[in-house]
Task: structure prediction
Amino acid sequence: MDHSFNCHVYYEDTDLAGIVYYANYLRYIERARTEWVRGLGIDQKAMKAADGVVFAVRRLEADYLSPAHFDDELTVRTRTQAITGARIVLNQDVWRGETLLFSAVVTLVALSSTGQPARMPANIRRQLQ
Amino acid sequence: MDHSFNCHVYYEDTDLAGIVYYANYLRYIERARTEWVRGLGIDQKAMKAADGVVFAVRRLEADYLSPAHFDDELTVRTRTQAITGARIVLNQDVWRGETLLFSAVVTLVALSSTGQPARMPANIRRQLQ
Amino acid sequence: MDHSFNCHVYYEDTDLAGIVYYANYLRYIERARTEWVRGLGIDQKAMKAADGVVFAVRRLEADYLSPAHFDDELTVRTRTQAITGARIVLNQDVWRGETLLFSAVVTLVALSSTGQPARMPANIRRQLQ
Amino acid sequence: MDHSFNCHVYYEDTDLAGIVYYANYLRYIERARTEWVRGLGIDQKAMKAADGVVFAVRRLEADYLSPAHFDDELTVRTRTQAITGARIVLNQDVWRGETLLFSAVVTLVALSSTGQPARMPANIRRQLQ
Result:
């Protein structure tokens, strides 16, 4: 079952081409990941405080299929594709109604406070599975 | 021969993890593309005015290899991998000194003023080859 | 009566100091203005298409009173202070619960498609009063 | 004597009105402050590590006089207006050639690692005077 997150296109998101600037889809899907993780009962602030661990994107494959415009109402759909001890692979798509605008495969890893790859805390891994 | 573009990491680029926010690498490589295109003698403003055409990213594959930090001096290296009538495929890497931090393959297409894929203007295509 | 708009602090909003980057409050209050204007029945896209007019910020006075952090739930409260034929002066405050974090006075003008100051369309002015 | 800092307007900086999004001038002047501080021999990373202190904006007054556009070459001019033990007041103007586009008065304070106002480290204060 996909996780759904709605977001709205504001002035800040557009560029002079009149469409959403390409980097801003990454902001949208990161907001969706934060809400998805929270919905699973994971507190990222507590995780950082307790384990010194943050999630970080390791790899991103993204297709820009159709542009989003100012004032569009968008939905980000997130679903888990794979989880191992060290990484999570997600599909994250951005839709405007029935139109798929953006489709990404995002690989996340856990990073320690020094920025090095870390093992995901066991309780976090259980919640994600 | 690669095109080189330097950029500096400012406060605006970092997030609370103390590293460059992942979407911001897309801003860095887009700055580099703008300078690369200008260096080839292509005026994007004139291209838009004359042909109603802008470049847009169609696909992105990105590996985040090592984090960049506040005050880092970065270099974006851009090189053409392939050009057809409709699209350009670029390699764009971000380095801090001898350390590769971020590596992307970016597929660009031309978009008309209505946001539909367009054929690249012939003179632009010649300049890119 | 104030207009209220909620927004959430995501990773993208923070900087390495662990707080919301100062420019991002301007994004929050601009989202609030967009929703406030929409709530008044003004369609900014139609206004641009019909009259070639967009709203632009002419002056900003902002006090940063207390920092917002990752995952904070914020409320932007917007109220009109003054309206003339050429400009609107708004108060826009950002709250976290009962704590005032940011307080701004924003002066808006209408700009033509060439970026010059323009008279606000009469129907828009009526809706704002 | 003013400190000068050049920056270029990229796609990321513009919005659908075809001009620089209003919050982005705050990014430009913050880049200029970082370079100004570095030019004075102050290492913000060391200051944070040694004293747990970061600079933060406490108040901002900004006039938006004329819009900047894609591909503009801008200069930020920074000069000290006043320094006390607790705060620095700066004038920061953004120019395109001989045209003043944006003019700000920025009040900075030192913040401790908990986000509370702190006294500026004595050595830093000396360097700023």
Observations:
- The mean pLDDT of chain D is 91.
- The beta strands of chain D are 3-8, 54-64, 73-83, 87-96, 99-111, 117-118.
- The domain at 3-128 of chain D is CATH 3.10.129.10 (Thiol Ester Dehydrase; Chain A).
